């Protein structure tokens, strides 16, 4: 069964420093991987996806993610963090069967960027 | 282009009552999925609707039911509410014939059961 794991409940980083939010996955077949961000009292906003091709995927708001097949990881990165990046981040994997197409989410990582 | 909309924003109900939540998908999308997000957790898949039919259901009891209308909008119904049903309910829409499975989420309905 498909699953993702986010090993860190919280990540703290100073503004201007690079940030990394970790995600590992377990899938059968080729993975379709996603990152979403959730601001307080809001729904989830799509950041980026990996389907195939380049291992470095660029997304919204300056975020990117690095797909590593050998380590089964899909870490979210940003070269220079902003205070406004503080939010809850979810990694997700697509579970596609003959009768459904759903996302399976990790437990989330809270990113706190300090001024 | 309107995104996914949900109503109401907040709802307070008493144990044993019934609730209906509504969702309008993003323009051009024909598939609606519902997720439950408990406090401090990631979203959990409830079920998905396509062509007005329920597809695979997640690990949720029959108290949770839904419907999709010809205009692709959807409702989530929960009967005999329990305290544990308190959560943020998220609707997501997608297009069955394209994309890589990314789903676009609405702002959610915060349900509190007292």
Overview of this structure, please?
The complex is a heterodimer of chains A (115) and B (114). Chain A has one domain: Immunoglobulin-like. Helices cover 0% and strands 54% of the residues of chain A. Chain A has no helices and twelve strands. In chain A, the strands form three sheets. In chain A, strands 2, 5, 6, 10, 11 and 12 form a six-stranded mixed β-sheet that branches. A four-stranded antiparallel β-sheet of chain A has the order 3-9-8-7, with no helix packed on it. Chain A is globular, with a radius of gyration of 14 Å. The N and C termini of chain A lie far apart (41 Å). By secondary structure, chain B is mainly β. Chain B has a single domain, classed as Immunoglobulin-like (Sandwich), CATH 2.60.40.10. Chain B has strands spanning 5-7, 10-13, 19-24, 31-37, 44-50, 53-57, 64-68, 74-78, 87-94, 104-105, 109-113. In chain B, strands 2, 4, 5, 6, 9, 10 and 11 form a seven-stranded mixed β-sheet that branches. Chain B has a four-stranded antiparallel β-sheet with strand order 1-3-8-7, with no helix packed on it. In chain B, a hairpin with a 2-residue loop joins strand 5 (44-50) and strand 6. Chain A binds chain B through residues 32, 34, 36, 41-46, 49, 51, 90, 94, 96-97, 99-108, and chain B through 4, 6, 31, 33, 40-45, 48, 55-56, 58, 90, 92, 94, 96, 100-108, 110.
Give the topology.
The complex is a heterodimer of chains A (115) and B (114).
Chain A: E1 3-5, E2 10-14, E3 19-21, E4 24-26, E5 33-38, E6 44-50, E7 56-58, E8 64-68, E9 73-78, E10 87-96, E11 101-105, E12 109-114
Parallel strand pairs in A: 2-12
Antiparallel strand pairs in A: 1-4, 3-9, 5-6, 5-10, 7-8, 8-9, 10-11, 10-12
Chain B: E1 5-7, E2 10-13, E3 19-24, E4 31-37, E5 44-50, E6 53-57, E7 64-68, E8 74-78, E9 87-94, E10 104-105, E11 109-113
Parallel strand pairs in B: 2-11
Antiparallel strand pairs in B: 1-3, 3-8, 4-5, 4-9, 5-6, 7-8, 9-10, 9-11
């Amino acid at each position: 069964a498909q699953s993702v794991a986010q090993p860190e409940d919280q990540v703290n980083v100073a503004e201007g420093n690079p940030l990394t939010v970790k995600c590992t996955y377990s899938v059968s077949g080729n993975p379709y991987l996603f990152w979403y961000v959730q601001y307080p009292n809001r729904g989830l906003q799509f950041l980026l996806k990996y389907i195939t091709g380049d291992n470095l995927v660029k997304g919204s708001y300056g975020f990117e993610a690095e797909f590593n097949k050998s380590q089964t990881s899909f870490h979210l990165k940003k070269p220079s963090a902003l205070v406004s990046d503080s939010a809850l981040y979810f990694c997700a994997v697509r579970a596609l069967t003959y009768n459904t197409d759903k996302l399976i989410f990790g437990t989330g990582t809270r990113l706190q960027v300090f001024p | 282009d309107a995104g996914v909309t949900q109503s109401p924003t907040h709802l307070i109900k008493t144990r044993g009552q019934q609730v209906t939540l509504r969702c309008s998908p993003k323009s051009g999308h024909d598939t609606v999925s519902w997720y439950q997000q408990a406090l401090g957790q990631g979203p959990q898949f409830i079920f998905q609707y396509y062509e007005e039919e329920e597809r695979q259901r997640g690990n949720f009891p029959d108290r949770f039911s839904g419907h999709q209308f010809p205009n692709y909008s959807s409702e989530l119904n929960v009967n005999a509410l329990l305290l544990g049903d308190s959560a943020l309910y998220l609707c997501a829409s997608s297009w069955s014939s394209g994309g890589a499975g990314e789903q676009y989420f609405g702002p959610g309905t915060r349900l509190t059961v007292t």
